[in-house]
Amino acid sequence: MATFSLSNVGPIYRREIRSYFQSPVAYVVIVVFLAIVGWFFTSDLFLINVASLRIVFELVPLVFLFFVPAITMRLLAEEKKSGTLELLATRPVRDVEIVLGKFFAAWTLLAAALAPTLIYLITLSALGSPDPGPVITGYLGLLLMGGVYIAIGIFASSITENQIVAFIVSLLIILALFMADKVLVFVPPAVASTLEFISIDYHFENIARGVIDSRNLIYFGSVLGFALLLATTSLERRKW
Predict the structure, then answer these.
(1) Is 64 inside a domain boundary?
(2) Total structural domains in the chain?
(3) How far apart are the C-alpha atoms of 73 and 70, rounded to whole Å?
(4) Would 159 be classed as within a structural domain?
């Protein structure tokens, strides 16, 4: 039995990165993402005369709802359908290494999509002096949120051979986590506190305010790790 090794994660990571950037997928997704975010940022800046990154931190989580399932739906579903996953499994590599390699590749793509939005920060810096604290924590929150969404997307992709099914399943799970704190007025107080805690947007907003709380970091780390564990278990199920 193969033992876990980070050296096995690297080749899988590089393979996925090449598959993203050697095809139009990465470029189309990034361009669409930047077009949507850029439109609303420039509308706030020039039409409403508001010079702030707040619109970016409010809009990107909504865009992630569709952006992340789109980039993760093929990661394992396509491999299972084509049979290349079984071929990969014949090598001395564990399922957890496959999952981690694909996770880090998708997370890199997400970071690559976010990186050009730093131009907005440069623009605001030329117009004034934005507070760096909320900006840094805001981007940290987006990366953590994106990481959780990617882990969920990989899990959804691990349970089916159909990419559309993987997209829908991951979208529904992500949407449920995002909307959990939006229905608090309709539920009893005892349930409301639980829904608020499991809401990913609640924890993101806490971080985006500029304060790093260990409870929020633990939440993101726990959900991300649990989703990756589910994905790994789903892959291992084929051996049972």
Answers:
(1) yes
(2) 1
(3) 6
(4) yes
* Average confidence score pLDDT of the chain: 85
CA distances from 143 to 4, 6, 137, 162, 221 (A): 26, 22, 10, 27, 12
Does residue 240 carry a pLDDT above 60? no
Closest Cα partner for 219 from 203, 231, 196? 203
Spatial CA neighbour of 98 closest among 82, 113, 86, 110:
86
Amino acid at 154: I
Specify the pLDDT at position 1: 44
Mean pLDDT score, 125-134:
74
Mean pLDDT of 67-96: 79
Rg of the chain in Å (alpha carbons): 19
Q: What is the pLDDT of residue 5?
A: 65
Residue 2 within a domain: no
- Residue 194 CA to its chain's centroid (Å): 23
Residue 231: what pLDDT? 94
> Any idea of the CA torsion for 81, 82, 84, 89, to the nearest 10 degrees?
30
